[in-house]
Design brief:
By secondary structure, the chain is α/β, with parallel strands linked by helices. It folds into two domains: 132 residues, Response regulator (Rossmann fold, 3-Layer(aba) Sandwich); 60 residues, Arc Repressor Mutant, subunit A. 47% of the residues lie in helices and 11% in strands. The chain contains ten helices and five strands. It has a five-stranded parallel β-sheet, with helices on both faces. Helix 4 packs across helix 6. The longest helix has 17 residues. The N and C termini lie far apart (38 Å). This is DNA-binding response regulator, NarL/FixJ family, contains REC and HTH domains. It comes from Streptomyces harbinensis. Keywords: DNA-binding, Phosphoprotein.
């Protein structure tokens, strides 16, 4: 990243102030630094105030004794946010569920500053990043290689195949071009994490046809 590159910004949702402060300190010590725009114990840290503008949301899944907060993850993903799940949970099921729901990254809190900073920069660029815990989950995944795409991700993907530009996709679906890009980036990340990278539009078309998401007649 050059000195002229934009600073990566983050909103942190974690109900332990010490953890949030530690994350902020790690980001401040990074070279170049990552800027925390907001931090708090609930959704408002990312969906209201300065946190709305953050490039990346770092989300603790365990915000209540009721269990993992996958509902909040769904809400953030639906808003087009790039979310890194950062949690004490270290189960394969939690990692794979988070990715299926649209998280761009999953780290356990045992993985430390270097992995969190690297994952944050990758998420801001909408690139996959695989820390050790996630690598173990992906290696242990015995599900079919087809990634689990959300309904809206499929809608955007199909519309993009049928339109000449992302602007036309945005107009058709009533969303912004930025949101179109977010959904397409998320689809690419899911395919990359499934071991079937699709870096170009042609590759995505091929994957979609292989997985039955679109037919040749529709193209």
């Amino acid at each position: 990243m050059t000195p002229q590159s934009p600073v990566v910004t983050v909103a942190v949702i974690d109900d332990h102030p010490v953890v949030a402060a530690g994350i902020a300190a790690w980001y401040a010590a990074a070279d170049p630094p990552v800027r925390v725009l907001a931090a708090g114990p609930d959704r408002s840290a990312a969906l209201h105030g300065p946190g709305r503008e953050a490039d990346v949301v770092v989300l603790d899944l365990q915000l209540s004794p009721a269990g993992p907060g996958f509902g909040l993850l769904r809400e953030l993903v639906a808003e087009g946010r790039a979310v890194i799940v950062y949690t004490v949970l270290d189960t394969e099921d939690a990692a794979l569920t988070a990715l299926d729901l649209g998280a761009v990254g999953f780290l356990t809190k045992a993985e430390g500053a270097d992995h969190l900073v690297a994952a944050t920069r990758a998420a801001a660029a909408r690139l996959p990043y695989t820390p050790p815990a996630l690598a173990g989950a992906l290696i242990g995944d015995r599900r079919p290689g087809r990634p689990a795409l959300a309904r809206r991700e499929i809608d955007v993907l199909r519309a993009w195949f049928q339109c000449e530009s992302k602007l036309l996709v945005a107009q058709r679906l009533g969303i912004s071009v930025r949101t179109v890009n977010t959904y397409l980036d998320r689809v690419r990340i899911k395919y990359a994490n499934a071991g079937r990278p699709a870096s170009t539009k042609a590759h995505l078309v091929a994957r979609a046809v292989q997985d039955g998401l679109v037919s040749l007649d529709e193209l």
